């Protein structure tokens, strides 16, 4: 990669909500402002875009860029005395100011737009961000990949696009791209693939005219997809009346099952646990989803807790995201008060110890098919994912990715920066070993299993140090929950 691409992908990994990226007050003009004075404002503030907002309510009405205005005046016979509202883009692309930056990168890449309006929960204007504020997703030579995804007209074309993304991802990994940047890059492009697949399938069905959203869980929700990943998804819909819930669900299920099948054909294996939107269990109304989470919080039975953990990593992918954001807002407010739930989560996480003996030697499970190996997902990355999830939910943190959670909760709990950095470095190292193994085998059961004897001495030492960091995380959990 070029130096610019490296810098861009490094910036892409920064864990920031959109609100923190909108550092400059945007240029805001009234709908009746003339093009002449609007151009003057552009000149005075050195701006390249302006938000057209209602002067009384502060609600954004439209967006106009300097390029748009020059086009209108120079080539479309627009008058400098025209009100700017005549030439604005109405209902401009917008996102909630507290949404993660990843969502904005995907939105911009998908729609080919250069600016996004940020709004407060009540709809008022918060700020404006541009591609220059985000960078990242178009790094790594991905422009042609994005164009190929957006241009695909059938599932066969999507299969080829998905394969190209995986091959390019392998090249970036082998050339030394940082693990966090690679996972964000892969997740961003995989999001575009998933969105395009849903678009193609959506055209084949007469879906109910209600707000709905395709949701992602697990590694997809955490932006930690690697090269061996299965589907973890669900569907949320908002019925006009509660009595219509079952009928609307039945109408959505054939569509969701078709999407699950298309994703499978494009390399995203069907979930072995059937956590997919095509399963009626995970095609629910907004009220049903909230009740499902409430049940997990209030009645933390061991088996239910074990099944539920990946659902707490949810994020919206396609459709109307506001109901999913409201569900997340409810959850981060509701969850901290459920001590029994967190105790059960910690107890479950502590049920599996890092694979190190007292003398510092590696220990192994009793898997007969892969003896003398360590599952770096279940006995490696999981320790960091579990601890980060527990602390994020307990502290009311919106983030879903493990690294963002470790950074946010570590800062909120005033942990030493060097300790936070050591945890993240250990997690990334385990992820790098996992990815390397996934690129070496086509056996799904072996995708996360590493034989330490296949590693050189330095890598064995680094892996042991990562497991020691996992032990420290577990020690903190034991102390916090008295286990």
From TrEMBL:
InterPro entries: CBS_dom, CBS_dom_sf, Diverse_CBS-Domain, DUF294_put_nucleoTrafse_sb-bd, GlnD_Uridyltrans_N. One of its GO terms (molecular function) is [protein-PII] uridylyltransferase activity. It comes from the Bacteria. Residues 22-80, 88-145 form the CBS domain. Pfam families: CBS, DUF294, DUF294_C. Keywords: CBS domain. This is CBS domain-containing protein. It comes from Thiorhodococcus mannitoliphagus.
């Amino acid at each position: 990669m070029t130096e610019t691409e490296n810098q861009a992908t490094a910036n892409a990994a920064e864990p920031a909500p959109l609100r923190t990226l909108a550092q400059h007050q945007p240029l805001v003009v009234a709908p009746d402002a003339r093009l002449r004075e609007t151009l003057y404002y552009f000149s005075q503030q050195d701006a390249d875009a302006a938000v057209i907002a209602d002067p009384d309510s502060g609600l954004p009405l439209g967006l106009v860029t300097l390029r748009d205005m020059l086009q209108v005046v120079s080539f479309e016979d627009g008058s400098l005395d025209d009100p700017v509202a005549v030439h604005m883009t109405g209902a401009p692309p917008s996102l909630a100011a507290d949404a993660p930056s990843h969502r904005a990168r995907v939105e911009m890449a998908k729609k080919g737009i250069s600016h996004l309006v940020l709004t407060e929960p009540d709809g008022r204007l918060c700020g404006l961000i541009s591609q220059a504020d985000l960078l990242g997703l178009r790094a790594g030579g991905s422009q042609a990949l994005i164009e190929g995804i957006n241009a695909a007209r059938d599932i066969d074309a999507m299969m080829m696009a998905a394969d190209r993304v995986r091959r390019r991802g392998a090249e970036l990994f082998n050339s030394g791209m940082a693990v966090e940047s690679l996972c964000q890059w892969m997740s961003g492009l995989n999001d575009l693939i998933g969105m395009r697949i849903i678009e193609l399938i959506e055209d084949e069905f007469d879906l109910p005219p209600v707000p709905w959203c395709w949701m992602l869980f697990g590694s997809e929700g955490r932006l930690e997809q690697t090269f061996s990943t299965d589907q973890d998804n669900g569907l949320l819909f908002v019925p006009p009346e509660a009595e219509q819930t079952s009928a609307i669900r039945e109408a959505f299920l054939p569509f969701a099952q078709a999407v699950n099948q298309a994703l499978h054909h494009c390399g995203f294996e069907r979930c072995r646990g059937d956590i997919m939107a095509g399963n009626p269990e995970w095609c629910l109304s907004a009220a049903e989803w909230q009740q499902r989470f409430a049940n997990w919080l209030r009645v933390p039975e061991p088996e239910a807790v074990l099944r539920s953990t990946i659902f707490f990593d949810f994020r919206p992918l396609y459709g109307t995201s506001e109901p999913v954001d409201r569900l997340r807002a409810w959850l981060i407010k509701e969850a901290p008060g459920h001590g029994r739930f967190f105790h059960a989560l910690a107890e479950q996480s502590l049920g599996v110890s890092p694979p190190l003996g007292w003398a510092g030697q590696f220990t192994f499970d009793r898997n007969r098919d892969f003896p003398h190996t360590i599952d770096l997902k279940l006995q490696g990355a999981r320790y960091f994912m579990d601890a980060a999830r527990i602390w994020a939910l307990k502290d009311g943190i919106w983030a879903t990715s493990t690294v963002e959670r470790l950074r946010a909760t570590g800062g909120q709990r005033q942990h030493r920066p060097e300790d936070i950095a050591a945890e993240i470095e250990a997690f990334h190292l385990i992820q790098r070993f996992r990815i390397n193994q996934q690129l070496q085998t086509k056996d799904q059961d072996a995708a996360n299993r590493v034989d330490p004897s296949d590693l050189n001495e330095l890598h064995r030492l680094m892996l042991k140090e990562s497991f020691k960091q996992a032990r420290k995380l577990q020690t903190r959990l034991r102390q916090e929950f008295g286990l």
